[in-house]
Structures are given as structure tokens and as C-alpha cells.
Design goal:
Elements: E1 16-18, E2 28-29, H1 31-36, E3 45-47, H2 48-83, H3 99-117, H4 121-143, H5 169-177, E4 181-182, E5 186-187, E6 196-199, E7 204-207, E8 213-218, E9 228-236, E10 241-245, H6 247-252, E11 267-271, E12 275-278, E13 287-288, E14 298-304, E15 309-314, E16 320-324, E17 332-337, E18 342-346
Parallel strand pairs: 4-9
Antiparallel strand pairs: 1-2, 1-3, 5-8, 6-7, 7-18, 8-17, 9-14, 9-18, 10-11, 10-17, 11-12, 12-13, 14-15, 15-16
The structure holds zinc ion (2 copies).
């Protein structure tokens, strides 16, 4: 017989388990637990018979899910095995190659051409990837819920009631905060003003001319369910700006905005001196609302599409600032730098 381990519960028989999603008490309950720990949700206390039914139900979903996951795995493997061998080494020393080797390489190229020409193939697989990444985020959130909620051998049980139990509340809180995903970014060499020079494989931007310019990064920030994070390190700057932008608007403004006049068309950024600029809310433009930062500080930017919120964090001082954004157009990470200023990207 299973008996209740909680002090003062007279070693009563365990009658079943509580299945309230966020119950912070031990799941198994005795007659005393019903009134002392689970009284406000006693409908969610299940007898062993009910638990067996529940288990059968959930295992159906489990089988269904695992079956689909297995199928996806098999399909992806099949595609991988077909595409992977199509790699062609750059042709050097052509004289030393055999005709049959050349023949094989050309056939590979032709196969890639067929893939390109097959309607929707590449677009579809790209879309599939976006969707799978999105789903992956949700499963990652699931993973952060602890399976082992209570440590049964601990003395925790002897402590009475509230607050003393190993709580999953904090874990749920963590889950609500959501795991953010790091986005690997680079400064764009295709979309940049000539005044900005890129070094270190496009991870370092330097403004070589007089005048404030925007350096746009790639890729665009994916509209995932989980927040997306990227970060910059201030190498040498005194009035730089960090944030995100609508690329087209920045290009049409020739990578230069008159922020001091409060014009923040297409940009969401915070300035090193604490001034903020928003494409969405022009009322806050050029107002000192954020934290200031200095050389060697690391500024992370978290873009949360679900909450439509951008969060800046100074990783050194832990200062934070956030603002809302509009989701109508794609966003790209960006920095604004003046003459001589240098910023680098820190990819995780
Ligand atoms: Zn009990
Ligand atoms: Zn409960």
C-alpha cells in the first residue's frame, strides 16, 4: 500500500494523484491532502482507475505524435541522402580529370538544376524549415517543464504546507519567460552605405566618413513564436545606436535618418546616451528613456514577435529597456554609427 509521506497525515493511504497542471504540491494525495493541499481544485484529483484511463488516452496522443515524428525523420533522411551527394568540388587541373569524372559532376549539376526548376520545391522546403523551427521552439518550452517535480526522499515533505515544497512555480515562470533563440547575424555587404567598411568577415562595422549611417545586418529576424536574440559589442563609440529596422525604409533614406529631429522612419533603436527612437511611437523619439552604455559594453537585443516587444539588455550592467514595435514589415538587426565608430557582432 502506498502511504502519504506528509507529516500529520497519519500515514494514510494514497488514493490517487492530482493532475492540476500547475499544482505545486506532491501529486499523490491522501484523504488529508484533499482538504489541506488540493481543496481549491479537488475536481482534478483522479483515482487510480481514472488515472489508468487518462494514461491510455495520453498514450494514444503519444503514439500519434511519435508516429508523425518518425515519418518526418524518415522523409528528411531520404531527402538528405539524395541531396548530400550532389556536392561538386571546384574544377581545378582540368587536364588531370577523367571524362567519366567530369560526366558525373555535370550530371550532379543537372540534378540540382532540376531541383531548382521543380515548381515550389526549394520554396516549399524553406517554408517547411521555418515552420519546423517554430514548432521546435514550442517543444523546447515543453522540455523546460520538469518531470521530477518533487524530490520524494527530501525532508521537504516534513515541512508543513505552503512555501516549503519544492515548487514548480518558478519553473513555470521560466517557461512563460520562454527560451529565446540566438540568431547568427552578419553586417550586410549588399545593403550598406559606402561610408561603412566591414571587416572580420562582416562582423565588424566601421564608419570611415563624417555623418551618421545605419549598418544593416542579415538575415531578417524570423517571426518565430519564441523570442530571437542577437548581440553587439561596442568597440569604440560615443553616440552609436543599436536596434532593428525595416530595411527598405532605411535604404530609401540612404542609410541616414535625422534622428535628432525626431524622425525615426523605419527604425527602433536606443542611443548610447539613453535616447530612444521608434518607428511605431513617434512620441518617444529623441527622449531620454533608456540606459546609457560605453565602450566594451555588450548590448543584446531580444525581439519578441508574440509580445511585439523589443528588449535591450546591457549584458555588463544588466540595465534593460523595452519598447513595442509593429509587425507589418520584416525587421533586420542594425546599428547606427558616426565617424570613427566601431561595433562588432557577437554571435553565440
Ligand atoms: Zn497526505
Ligand atoms: Zn493539486
Amino acid at each position: 500500500m502506498l502511504i502519504c509521506q506528509i507529516e500529520n497525515h497519519d500515514e494514510s493511504q494514497i488514493l490517487g494523484c492530482c493532475i492540476k497542471q500547475d499544482c505545486k504540491h506532491p501529486r499523490p494525495y491522501c484523504q488529508y491532502c484533499i482538504t489541506s493541499l488540493h481543496s481549491d481544485h479537488f475536481q482534478q484529483l483522479k483515482s487510480f482507475k481514472q488515472l489508468n484511463e487518462l494514461m491510455l488516452q495520453k498514450m494514444k496522443s503519444y503514439d500519434y505524435l511519435m508516429n508523425i515524428i518518425q515519418q518526418i525523420k524518415t522523409s528528411i533522411n531520404t531527402i538528405y541522402e539524395i541531396v548530400n551527394p550532389l556536392y561538386v568540388h571546384p574544377l581545378e587541373n582540368v587536364q588531370q580529370l577523367s571524362c567519366s569524372y567530369l560526366n558525373e559532376q555535370i550530371i550532379k549539376l543537372m540534378k540540382i538544376e532540376v531541383a531548382e526548376a521543380t515548381a515550389g520545391l526549394i520554396v516549399n522546403i524553406k517554408e517547411l524549415n521555418d515552420r519546423i523551427q517554430n514548432i521546435c521552439c514550442k517543444f523546447q518550452n515543453l522540455k523546460s517543464i520538469p518531470i521530477k517535480q518533487t524530490n520524494f526522499s527530501d525532508q521537504l515533505y516534513q515541512n508543513k504546507q505552503q512555501g516549503s515544497y519544492f515548487s514548480i512555480e518558478s519553473q513555470l515562470e521560466k517557461q512563460n519567460q520562454e527560451m529565446s533563440q540566438n540568431l547568427t547575424i552578419l553586417f550586410s555587404s549588399d545593403y550598406k552605405p559606402i561610408q561603412i567598411e566591414l571587416e572580420n568577415n562582416c562582423k565588424k562595422a566601421i564608419n570611415l566618413c563624417i555623418g551618421w549611417k545605419v549598418a544593416v545586418c542579415e538575415p531578417k529576424i524570423p517571426k518565430n513564436n519564441c523570442p530571437i536574440t542577437f548581440q553587439f559589442k561596442i568597440i569604440n563609440a560615443s553616440a552609436c545606436d543599436i536596434g532593428v529596422c525595416h530595411r527598405n525604409k532605411i535604404i530609401s533614406a540612404n542609410y541616414s535618418l535625422d534622428l535628432a529631429k525626431g524622425s525615426a522612419q523605419g527604425i527602433y533603436c536606443i542611443n548610447q546616451q539613453g535616447y530612444v527612437y521608434s518607428n511605431l511611437n513617434q512620441n518617444i523619439n529623441n527622449k531620454k528613456q533608456s540606459f546609457s552604455f560605453k565602450n566594451n559594453d555588450i548590448i543584446s537585443v531580444e525581439v519578441n514577435y508574440q509580445k511585439q516587444r523589443i528588449l535591450w539588455t546591457n549584458q555588463i550592467s544588466k540595465d534593460q529597456y523595452s519598447m513595442q514595435f509593429d509587425i507589418t514589415e520584416d525587421l533586420y538587426p542594425c546599428v547606427g554609427i558616426g565617424y570613427g565608430e566601431i561595433i562588432t557582432i557577437l554571435n553565440a
